[in-house]
Write a structure and sequence with these properties.
Layout (H helix, E strand, L loop, with lengths): L13 E10 L9 E9 L7 E4 L12 H9 L6 H4 L4 H30 L11 H10 L9 H11 L7
Antiparallel strand pairs: 1-2, 2-3
Helix pairs in contact: 3-4, 4-5
Length: about 160
């Protein structure tokens, strides 16, 4: 079964352009290079190129999502060094970027759910960070995923948002 992709900018059908190899870094080094689908918008006024990345990778990040997510979830624990081989400065940057983007992305997720389900969500939810993101993602229809950040990026994409983690 073929998957159909639409341009997130102009919502017009896209077509296959090429497979683009992307290197990824993982502590276990099991996935050094991953083929990514590159599509072109068929709208003559747009003609943008989009790369469809797998959910276990994040846009503009080299490390796999499992390692990034584990580093974000356990920022102050000593086990962080056993989760990933990333440098401390890289882990601090991941945590800072996550903290900066999380409030806006959570607001977008709530709006998408309100549109999809036409009901109000409780704004009294006291959970924070990845716990709040997991609770919101449980309300979306089920999609296969490898990480919380991966499914969040997928839902943001399907919702037409140009945000990502």
């Amino acid at each position: 079964m073929a998957t159909i992709f639409y341009c997130p900018i102009c919502c017009v059908l896209t077509h296959f352009n090429q497979w683009k190899p992307r290197s990824s870094w993982s502590s276990d080094s099991l996935i050094p290079t991953i083929p990514q689908l590159q599509v072109l918008c068929t709208n003559p006024a747009c003609k943008r190129t989009h790369v469809i990345i797998p959910d276990f990778l994040n846009p503009y990040k080299r490390y796999v999502g499992v390692e990034i997510e584990a580093s974000i979830e356990q920022p102050k624990k000593a086990e962080t060094s056993t989760i990933t081989e990333a440098e401390e400065s890289t882990i601090r940057r991941w945590i800072r970027q996550f903290s900066e983007r999380l409030p806006e992305i959570l607001n977008v997720m709530v709006r998408l759910l309100m549109i999809e389900y036409e009901n109000m969500l409780s704004l009294l939810d006291c959970s924070q960070g990845l716990a709040r993101l997991r609770r919101l993602l449980e309300l979306f229809r089920y999609r296969k995923r490898s990480t919380v950040l991966g499914i969040a990026n997928l839902e943001l994409f399907y919702g037409g948002s140009l945000l990502y983690f």
